[in-house]
Amino acid sequence: MTSSTTAAHQQSAQQSRSPMTNVVPPRPIKAKTASTDVFLKDFTLVAEAAKRAQMACLMRDMEGVGLS
């Protein structure tokens, strides 16, 4: 190998060994969350609220029904 080929090979080897800089993206800005987000995480509370709403609608609709 000639000295120019060896120098070029060493230079390319040094470039490939250079550490890559890690680019860290900026953290996303947290927007204000809605007050219901906390409750939506707990699905048992959502299920309970749905049951209560369903019963309230049923009671409202059946209020005028009478047995004869």
Number of helices: 3
| Structural Rg | 34 Å
Order of helices and strands: HHH
Can you give the mean pLDDT? 75
Indicate the percent of residues in helices. Answer: 55-70%
Q: Report the sheet with the most strands, covering strand number, pairing sense and barrel closure.
A: none
Specify the overall morphology. rod-shaped
Total strands: the figure is: 0
For the termini, the CA-CA separation is 110 Å
The computed structural class is mainly alpha
What is the percentage of strand-forming residues? under 5%
Low-confidence stretches: none
Please give a structural write-up.
Residues 1-31 are annotated as: Disordered. Residues 1-16 have a biased composition (Low complexity). The chain is mostly helical. The chain has a domain at 36-63. It is built from three helices and no strands. It has helices spanning 3-17, 37-40, 43-62. The termini are far apart. The mean pLDDT is 75.
Question: What labels would you give this structure?
Answer:
single chain; 68 residues; mainly alpha; 57% helix; 0% strand; rod-shaped
SSE order and pairing:
Blueprint: H1 3-17, H2 37-40, H3 43-62
What would a concise description of this structure say?
With 68 residues, this protein is mainly alpha-helical. The protein has three helices and no strands.
